């Protein structure tokens, strides 16, 4: 057996300062992947993630990005190019994980246009245009993973726009896979179930958690590492024939 001295891969992970994105960044680094992670408000937490990776033999850089501000994406893309050249002596990266997102906590009757637009801009329009801008920097044969949600498959009250946008993101996943197949870029979506993070103000009270757990075949809520470890495992040639798929990481919710 010959062990190849492979070039280190680079993943760009949005929303890497906390929760699932942080776990994806740390798990990817543990697998030898270098990381560009983004944060919106929490630069301190993002720098802790980057420092943890850098202090443990990996390489990471944290950049600010508001994924609802499409007008900033050209500058952000230029910044990514500069960082790639300076830190890696490269002009491209290998994996894009569109993870950043915001939650909804309003019934349809209480959902204003402002709430609707913020959800669309952050969770859908931002994903589309950021990917459009960054895809010239993704190496041929690279991969994009869009973080979706179980709520794209089943409905709960209070998350109508959020769930519909995650379903739309799963649709985009297939369209990007189709149009970028000529560059052999694979595009998949990973749909977490209920995961214990700070998302939308946290996991809720005990009775809510018990209810979710009782609807889950594995009998518990997920933790960030349940998703982070899985996504990191996809960032590899081992998944080379998995394309345009939706993969749920929910412990078997509503089966
Ligand atoms: N937790 C769940 O139960 C669950 C279930 C299904 C799907 N998901 C999806 O998983 C993804 C991550 O969720 P999470 O649970 O890890 O959430 P989280 O703990 O609230 O973390 C959200 C991350 O997104 C970043 N972010 C928020 N708004 C942003 C914006 N406008 N622009 C750029 N970045 C922004 C945050 O950055 P700052 O820290 O800088 O604010 C943070 O890094 C989301 O797409 C979510 O829809 C979560």
From TrEMBL:
Keyword annotations from UniProtKB, A to Z: NADP, Oxidoreductase
Q: Which organism is this entry from?
A: Pedobacter chinensis
Q: Which GO terms describe its molecular function?
A: oxidoreductase activity
What are the boundaries of the signal sequence?
A: none
Q: Which family does it belong to?
A: Belongs to the short-chain dehydrogenases/reductases (SDR) family.
Question: Could you tell me what this protein is called?
Answer: SDR family NAD(P)-dependent oxidoreductase
- InterPro entries listed in its UniProt record: NAD(P)-bd_dom_sf, SDR_fam
Q: Does the keyword Cell cycle apply?
A: no
Q: Which branch of life, at top level?
A: Bacteria
List the Pfam families. adh_short_C2
Q: Which SUPFAM superfamilies does the record cross-reference, listed alphabetically?
A: NAD(P)-binding Rossmann-fold domains
